[in-house]
Design a protein that fits this description.
The chain is of the alpha+beta class and 290 residues long. Helices cover 24% and strands 26% of the residues. The chain contains 10 helices and 13 strands. The strands form 4 sheets. A 5-stranded mixed β-sheet has the order 2-11-9-10-3. A 3-stranded antiparallel β-sheet has the order 4-1-12. The longest helix is centred in the N-terminal third of the chain and has 16 residues, at 30-45. It is globular. This is WYL domain-containing protein. It comes from Tunturiibacter gelidiferens.
């Protein structure tokens, strides 16, 4: 059985990270890769130096304030950003920087409907959408009586198992599945404006000629609040350089490398073991009785 494939669009004008899937991709050799990188570097050198410009559009934000005020009342918005300084506003996608190196597209996944520019109710619905899917395949062993191994397999790379102390119901464990933030997020850090979450939506919007969209606007105080902390993202030296990567670069064929790789799945493994142990008052005091 052939493994499903996905298409990778990778920005290449800011150096390459270690990524085995790129190295093993068919269709180009090291000489061709070096030539493509040189072309991307030339294209980047022709660009003007970055000039600080706010991506937040104040007039459009005022124009649709009643719609934004209604969206702000959502409880899940406040829960998602309770430790952050945030608001809702309209932003210009063309002014946003990108800290993601790669976008992954599944050929089997149909593109969602894209509202037209000016369809503010439709754009708000796209930007402040419902919860992301937690659909998964559950695999478990059914043999051992004193141990249980469970695996959750999902196509959603952001699926998490979270502790939720407010879980109610007799015998219910305080755990729940979280599919990742469903919100379109923009963050400002050190005077620069970044797309924090919603890269695929931004790509399809720009393709359709839509560049102004409502978003959750976060005023980040650190790179951690920005969210650009994983090894496969661009680092400070690229993000705060004279010519940083932009979201619009993903639509420029001279700035990206395209190739296929095997589709990956998110796997969450849980092991439950039973035992009898001496009573420990310290551990009991640190726990939460349910």
């Amino acid at each position: 059985m052939t493994s499903p494939k996905v298409d990778v669009h990778e920005l290449i004008a800011w150096g390459l990270d270690e990524y085995s899937y790129r190295d093993g991709a068919a269709g180009f050799d090291s000489t061709e890769l070096a030539a493509r990188i040189r072309r991307a570097n030339t294209r980047l050198a022709e660009r003007d130096r970055y000039a600080t410009t706010s991506a937040l559009l104040e007039q459009e934000t005022r124009d649709i304030q009643p719609l934004l005020a209604m969206a702000t009342q959502r409880e899940d918005l406040h829960l998602e950003y309770q430790s952050l300084d945030w608001t809702l506003g309209v932003v210009d996608l063309r002014l946003l920087l990108a800290f993601q190196r790669r976008l992954i597209f599944s050929p089997s996944r149909q593109a969602s409907f894209t509202p037209k520019q000016g369809d503010w109710p439709g754009l708000i619905s796209l930007a402040v959408s419902s919860q992301r899917s937690t659909e998964h395949l559950l695999v478990h062993n059914g043999s051992d009586t004193d141990r249980l191994d469970i695996s959750l397999h999902s196509n959603n790379p952001d699926l998490q198992l979270r502790f939720t102390p407010k879980t109610s119901g007799y015998g219910a464990l305080p755990l729940s599945l979280y599919g990742g933030s469903p919100f379109f997020e923009v963050a400002e850090l050190r005077g620069r404006w970044f797309l924090r979450d919603g890269y695929h939506r931004a790509y399809h919007l720009l393709q359709a000629g839509v560049d102004r969209i409502p978003a959750v606007v976060i005023y980040a105080r650190s790179i951690e609040e920005l969210g650009a902390t994983t090894p496969w993202f661009f680092h400070d030296e690229q993000l705060f350089s004279d010519r940083p990567p932009r979201v619009t670069d993903f639509l420029d064929s001279s700035m990206i490398l395209r190739y296929e790789r095997t589709a990956l799945r998110k796997v969450i493994r849980i092991r439950v073991e039973e035992s009898l142990e001496p009573f420990d008052e310290i551990q009991e005091g640190q726990g939460e009785r349910l």
